[in-house]
Amino acid sequence: MTVDAKQPLKTTPVITQIGSVHRRRNRFILFWDALRHSPVGLIGLLIVLSLLLLAVFGGFITPHDPAQNNLRARFMQPGFTNEVGVFVLGTDQLGRDIFSRIIVGSTVSVLVGVVSVIIAGTLGVLLGLVSGFFGGWVDNILMRLADGLLSIPFIILVVAISGVLSAGLGTLILILGLTGWVTYARVIRSEVLKAREMEYIVAAYAIGHRRLSIMFQHILPNVISSGIILAASQVGVAILAESSLSFLGLGVKPPTVTWGLMLADGRQYINSAWWMTTFPGIAITITVLGITFLGDWLRDLLDPKVRGRN
Amino acid sequence: MQGLVVRRLLHMAITLFVVSLVVFFMVRLRGDPISVMAPPTFSEEQVARLREAWGFDKPLIEQYVLFITKAITGDFGQSIQARRPAMELVFERLGNTYLLASAAAILGVVIALPLGILSAVKRNSLIDLISSAFASLGNAMPNFWLGLMLIIIFSVNLRILPAFGALEPAAIIMPAVTLAVGTAARLSRITRSSMLEVLNQDYIRTAYSKGLSDRRVLYQHALRNALIPIVTVFGLQLGWLLGGSVIVESVFSWPGLGRLMIESINVRDITVVQAGLLWFALSFLVINFVIDLLYVYLDPRIHYR
Fold first, then answer.
1. Which of A235, B108, B178, B249 gives 20 to 30 Å between its CA and that of B242?
2. Does A144 touch chain B (CB under 8 A)?
3. pLDDT (tens digit per residue) in A85-138
4. A2 inside domain
5. Which structural domain range is residue A129 located in?
6. A1 domain residue, yes or no
7. Is the pTM of this model over 0.90?
8. How large is the C-alpha radius of gyration of chain B?
9. Does residue A10 belong to any structural domain of this protein?
10. CB contact under 8 A, B142 and A278
């Protein structure tokens, strides 16, 4: 964006499309302005913010103790009320409150989504940068490894590894992080290949910058937005992967509460207790939907090629 | 063209070699599976003999060389659980997985293409809105959950479709729909945006102005040129369908390769896991190979160096 500002001729149309001409604004106002004009982005932001709040403070606001068994109140329908209170979304096979468990389950989703994406993104951006910048045998080895990893469908790859390692939460995050770098590396590499040929890079060499400083100070800032756009969408992918693995019994183990595990429980009683499978799935869907909305909005904002097209 | 085929095949061989390395060391991340195989009553000497019999006592590099030289001839060793050739087990299940994945792929295309074209032509209309809602939801829903919901509706409540197995033809409906929704979602989006881009081109305006019918312009001028990105995403989706089969097959107890993988992983039958993973990779690579050749057919301007 700072680069744009130095080339007024080229950016004029873009600025008009955002809504204001020739007025200097700080970045925050620009973000807010773009958000105001994008209801979908705003919905996404609201969902993601509430998810973050739930993940951090959820344990304090649950209407019932999510781990409290109550064998006299097993398999109660949504809306069931007894002397303890209302069970809005019903109870499970041990009489635990499904609503409270969904609230508490958000923690694992957020943790897995955020941490695994940070690991995968950092690793992927670095490797893509090195691969594209240096080329040669480093590039060859990394890209052949990427080809190999990409030719095994992602979910099968993580299923196999977590099956072998019988993963818990920490291992699962690590597995998702260490297998997820490939996509970032590919995208960043192709961006670096383009950026490397730009005149300002030649200029940087000419005024005597060293290779490492060119790589990190001149190329990285110009390719990083692709990485950020990708990361936003990958959070949803990681959350879906975690819930799939936990559902299959290859991910997080009880007593940790996760939406995937709740679905695995619900599947056992699918003939009688539809609410046990329905609500955790809705929670996952809304979460991923919110992240996608926010990610799409971020992409439109960061990617000048798409910006202002609508 | 010949050069392209040869180069692609070579690339495929290299990738498969990398996959074999990754898979071989991956399944051994926690040491050899003898500890799981041997009954707890076995003495240490008996365990050692078992380990020797399966060749797990040799250095890893030597084991790998043995594995790869045999694998080239199609021999992936004996299944540790079933005591039958691992490849035989894989082949038994393969047909079911391909059947399910192709049914889902066809269904996905049948839903996505008309939906994508319609929403591009009638941009910002009600149908565009519906299609975009479908795409967002289809992308965000975990497919195994969608499968469970279908079971609740069509098996538990309406009792019109079987919830599991592959014994009757109707049993494929729900797993195929479950798998197809995600594919249809992604494919309809790319169809829409690719069509929109083409519809803005000058030659489309020319085609209209010479008085060609809407249908003719849409299908012969626009769709044909919009097809390359659609085919690319479709190819990626086929790989995704193979992957999705792992979970959807377990939900519906569909006797395919994906379920075999989960079963084998649970009992740490590493020879079957190796064979299955390599087969998944080979399928994916062959699909991509075919797609690469399709590009040349779709756009004669494409030449590969």
1. A235
2. yes
3. 888 788 888 888 889 899 999 999 999 999 999 999 999 999 999 998 888 899
4. no
5. 15-309
6. no
7. no
8. 24
9. no
10. no
